Amino acid sequence: MPRIKGAFVIARNTAFAFKRKVIDVKRLGRELNVRYVLEGSVQRAANRLRVNVQLIDAETSNHLWAERFDKPIGDISISRMRLYRASPIR
After folding, report:
1. Which terminus, N or C, of the chain has the lesser number of Cβ atoms within 10 Å?
2. 31-49: b (≥16 Cβ within 10 Å) or e
3. To 5 degrees, how large is the angle CA 82–CA 56–CA 53?
4. Would you say residue 6 lies in a domain?
């Protein structure tokens, strides 16, 4: 995400403070002073990795983009590049 012009990534510890908490995206945006929130999940089954991501406008709670990547674990670096290329914000 840092490659996206004008975007910044908050510290990992800050993000983990909200892990497993139910919180309104608008409130989260205000608390972190961000316009967009990228949320997602990672699941591993046998030799496959599934990554679900969604980009949400923190001011409106609208989902702007969502994608699922389901690849063999050996293709992780390829999937990371595809995730970057698929992102709607640059």
Report:
1. C
2. eeebebbbeeeeeeeeeeb
3. 35
4. no
Closest of 52, 44, 35 to residue 73, by C-alpha:
44
Sign of CA dihedral 70, 76, 81, 84: positive
Report pTM.
0.69
User: Does residue 7 lie within any of the structural domains?
Assistant: no
- Whether 3 is covered by a domain: the verdict is no
Give how many domains the chain has, as a whole number: 1
Q: Please identify which residue in the block is written with the tokens 């945006």.
A: 29
Q: Which two tokens stand for residue 25?
A: 């995206």
Phi-psi region at 88: left, alpha or beta (left = phi > 0; alpha = psi -120 to 50):
alpha
Whether residue 4 lies inside any domain: the answer is no
CA 17 to mean position of chain CA atoms? 16
Mean pLDDT of 8-20: 81
Find the distance separating the first CA and the last CA of the chain, reported in whole Å.
Answer: 9
